[in-house]
Known about the structure:
Layout: H1 3-7, H2 11-25, H3 32-45, H4 49-71
Keywords: Membrane, Transmembrane, Transmembrane helix
Amino acid sequence: MADKDVKTLSFLQRFSLMEREARAADLKPWNFHENGKWYREKYDEYGLTRPLQTFCVFAMIVIIAFGIWTLSGPI
Length: 75
């Protein structure tokens, strides 16, 4: 699939395509460095880097807010 075609797909469709490619590539779990390079290239190819970063920042903010709320104790 051409790079421009992939960018027009929804996030879930792009993620699903990348997951199929990962299964077809037969990545070995003990090859952390090679797997990391492969996934970095695919995240860039499918345009998933920014959505993943956004999700991680959102999750971090939620976790920090929950931690502060939990540690603040009863009011």
